[in-house]
Structure formats: structure tokens, C-alpha cells
Amino acid sequence: MEQSFKMRRLEDMLPKAEKDDIITLFMALQRQNFALANTVTNLVKQWPNHLPTTPEAPSNAGTS
Are 22 and 14 in contact (CB under 8 A)? Predict the structure, then answer.
């Protein structure tokens, strides 16, 4: 709900904004997008292909 309100407020204010302010905001958001994309890419590269498993002791259930 809060995000919807903020988006509506931005949409209402955008036509009144100065072009230079919009350009500044766009460039800042683009830099942030690149930083987040690089971070996700690096995390995926470092993610293990398979999860390590620990050896388990053999079960004694059902044996006499």
C-alpha cells in the first residue's frame, strides 16, 4: 500500500520536475542498477554447484 502511494505521488510530480533533476535521478538509478547486477552476477559465480553433504553414520534401524 505504501509503495503504491509513493509511486502515485511520483507519477503526479514527474510532469512538474526539471529535466536536469530527472536526468540526475535516472543516472543515479542506472548506476545503482549496474552495482546490483554486478553483485548478483558475482554471487551466482561463487555459488557452489552442489551443496556439500556430511557423511552420516549407518543406520541401525531394522537390524538385529
Answer: yes
